[in-house]
Design a protein that fits this description.
Blueprint lengths: L7 H18 L9 E2 L15 E2 L2 E2 L1 E2 L2 E4 L2 E4 L5 H22 L6 H11 L1 H4 L3 H4 L5 H15 L7 H8 L5 H17 L3 H15 L5 H11 L3 H6 L5 H23 L8 H4 L8 H4 L2 H11 L6 H4 L25 H7 L4 H7 L2 H5 L3 H8 L4 H22 L4
Parallel strand pairs: 1-4
Antiparallel strand pairs: 2-3, 5-6
Helix pairs in contact: 2-3, 2-6, 3-6, 6-7, 8-10, 8-12, 15-21, 18-21
Bound molecules: zinc ion.
C-alpha cells in the first residue's frame, strides 16, 4: 500500500487512520518493512518530518523500490536506470551466451534483443523515460557493437546506420504519450485527482511528470495536443508521433556523419537502414568487411588521427609502398602494389585496372554474395600481409 500526502501532518493522520482500520479488521502491519520517503530537492529532514505507527517510529529512506521502479527522494530516476541496466545486462549476457551455439543472422539477433532484453530497459518507462538516457542506451549500443564485432569506441552513428536501429528512446517517448492519453481519458477518481494536482503544479511552473509530457509533445511539434488533452484518432496520432521522433533522429544522424572518422562512410551510406551484407556474409568474414566499412582498421588514415602520434591528414602515407599515397581504404583495396597478387585473386579487374572512387563505392555497396566473400577474404589476407611487411606484432 502506498500512502501519499502533501504535509507531515497529513501523512500522520493517514497512518492513524490505517491503524484504526487494521485494528478493526484484526490486521497487522510489519513495521520493519514499512518505509517513509520525503520527496524534496535536497537537504536533510526537518524535525517535524518524523512519523509513527502504533507508537513505533517509521524509518525514512532516500530510495525505495516500488513495484520494480526505484524512486529517489529528489525525483531523479538515475538510480532506477542503473537498476534496470543491471538487470538488462544479465539478460543480454544470457542471450549472447545462448546464441553463440547457433549461427544466427544479425537481424534475428536484433529481434531477440527487442524481445528479451529491451523489456527490462523499458520497464515502467511511461513514468521515467522522458530523457534520452545515455545509461539505458549504453546497453543497446553495447549489443549493436557486439553484433558487428567492432570496438567499444566505434563511432555510434555508423553502428546505428549499419543495423538500421533506432535508439530506445523512440519507443519510450511513444509509450509515455500513449500512457498520458490513457490517464487524461480515465474515469478513475484517484487517477483524475492525482492528474489534476499534477497539472495545476505544472501550470505554475513546477517540474513533474505532466510538465515532462508537455515538454515532450512541444519538442516534436504537438504542443496543441497537450492543450486539447485529446486526439481524434489515437492510433493515427501515435503513428505520426513515432514517425516524427524517427525523422528528428535521422536528421541528427545525417548531421553526425560529418565527423572526420566517417569521411568514407558518408560517401557510400546514403540512406539509413539495415545492410543486407550482414545477412549475406558468413560470421567469420562479416567482421572484416564490416570493419572496413566502419573505418575500424589499422590503416594510417585512421591511426594517424590518434592524439599521441597525430599526423596531418595529407601526410598519412602508406608505409607498405613508396608511392606517397595516403593509406586510406581506397588505396588499400584498389591501388597499393603490395597486395597485387591477392588482388588479382579476389577482386574483379574492373575495380583496379582503372580505379576510381565511384567504382570503389559501388564495390562497398555490392550485394553480390561471391563478390562480398572475395572482398572480405582480400581484406583479411591483405591485413595479414600488411602486418608482416610492417613487422607489426599482433
Ligand atoms: Zn601502399
Amino acid at each position: 500500500m502506498a500512502i501519499v500526502g502533501k504535509s507531515p501532518e497529513e501523512i500522520q493522520q493517514h497512518l492513524n487512520r490505517l491503524l484504526e482500520y487494521c485494528n478493526n479488521w484484526g490486521l497487522s502491519v510489519n513495521i520493519l518493512k514499512t518505509k517513509n520517503m520525503v520527496f524534496r530537492k535536497r537537504g536533510g529532514l526537518l524535525p517535524s518530518e518524523h512519523w509513527t505507527y502504533n507508537g513505533q517510529s517509521i524509518e525514512v529512506v532516500n530510495d525505495f523500490n516500488y513495484l520494480g521502479t526505484v524512486f529517489n527522494y529528489t525525483g531523479n530516476y538515475a538510480l532506477n536506470q542503473e537498476h534496470l541496466t543491471g538487470k538488462a545486462l544479465k539478460a543480454l549476457n544470457v542471450l549472447l551466451c545462448k546464441c553463440r551455439e547457433y549461427d544466427l543472422k544479425p537481424k534475428i539477433l536484433c529481434q531477440l534483443f527487442d524481445a528479451f532484453v529491451a523489456p527490462f530497459l523499458n520497464y515502467a518507462s511511461e513514468i521515467w523515460g522522458y530523457t534520452k538516457s545515455k545509461e539505458i542506451e549504453r546497453i543497446n549500443l553495447k549489443f549493436c557493437k557486439r553484433l558487428l564485432n567492432v570496438r567499444k569506441n566505434t563511432c555510434t552513428a555508423s553502428v546505428y546506420g549499419e543495423l538500421g536501429r533506432y535508439p530506445l528512446y523512440v519507443h519510450r517517448f511513444v509509450r509515455i504519450i500513449q500512457y498520458w492519453l490513457k490517464v487524461v481519458r480515465s474515469d478513475n477518481i484517484i487517477t483524475r485527482t492525482v492528474y489534476r494536482y499534477a497539472l495545476s503544479d505544472c501550470v505554475i511552473g513546477k517540474n513533474n511528470w505532466v510538465s515532462n509530457v508537455r515538454k515532450l509533445l512541444s519538442e516534436f511539434g504537438f504542443g496543441y495536443v497537450f492543450d486539447n488533452a485529446s486526439v481524434p484518432n489515437e492510433k493515427y496520432f501515435l503513428c505520426e508521433l513515432k514517425t516524427r521522433i524517427i525523422d528528428c533522429f535521422r536528421q541528427k544522424w545525417y548531421r553526425s556523419l560529418d565527423s572526420p572518422v566517417l569521411f568514407l562512410y558518408k560517401d557510400f551510406k546514403t540512406t539509413f537502414g539495415y545492410e543486407h551484407y550482414l545477412d549475406i556474409l558468413p560470421k567469420s568474414l562479416r567482421l572484416f568487411f564490416c570493419r572496413l566499412r566502419l573505418s575500424v582498421h589499422p590503416l594510417r588514415i585512421q591511426t594517424g588521427r590518434y592524439n599521441r602520434n597525430r599526423i596531418q591528414r595529407d601526410k598519412r602515407y602508406c608505409l607498405c609502398c613508396n608511392r606517397s599515397d595516403i593509406e586510406d581504404e581506397f588505396h588499400f583495396i584498389c591501388i597499393c602494389p603490395c597486395f597485387n597478387l591477392i588482388r588479382k585473386k579476389y577482386i574483379k579487374r574492373n575495380y583496379y585496372i582503372r580505379p576510381s572512387v565511384l567504382k570503389f563505392i559501388e564495390l562497398l555497396n555490392s550485394t553480390n554474395r561471391q563478390e562480398l566473400i572475395k572482398l572480405s577474404l582480400f581484406v583479411k589476407e591483405a591485413l595479414c600481409i600488411r602486418r608482416t611487411t610492417l613487422n607489426i606484432e599482433i
